[in-house]
Amino acid sequence: MAVTLTEKAAQHVAQFIAKRGKGMGVRLGVRTTGCSGLAYKFEFVDAAAPEDMTFESHGVTVVIDPKSLPYIDGTELDYTREGLNEGFKFNNPNVKSECGCGESFKV
């Protein structure tokens, strides 16, 4: 079981944590929403809960709650630029379908 960041994503996370002035890493997870059922959660985290799983990727700590892990296990978080848009992109091998607007997915 693992969730990883590309080197580019890890650099962006590290820069955001440095600007923020605190934090141990980033928390990734899922929540129930949208037309396909699940959506990603992404937030900076100052401390992990005892039940959380933690992974290290390119020097950045990734924190995941145990309920989200089965849905995002094997996911790689990338940072991409497409035209004028840039941001984090979840490359999740578990996704079976996505909604048309890209806000939610189903596993």
- Tell me the total number of β-strands: 9
Provide the succession of SSEs: EHEEEEHEEEE
pLDDT < 50 stretches: none
Helix content: 10-25%
Going by helix content, strand content and strand pairing, the class is alpha/beta
**Total of DSSP H or I helical runs spanning 4+ residues:** 2
- Report the mean per-residue pLDDT as an integer: 87
Short description:
The protein has 107 residues and is of the alpha/beta class.
Q: What does it look like?
A:
The chain is of the alpha/beta class and 107 residues long. Helices cover 17% and strands 45% of the residues. It has a 4-stranded mixed β-sheet. A 3-stranded mixed β-sheet has the order 1-6-7. β4 and β5 form a beta hairpin. The model has no long low-confidence stretch (mean pLDDT 87).
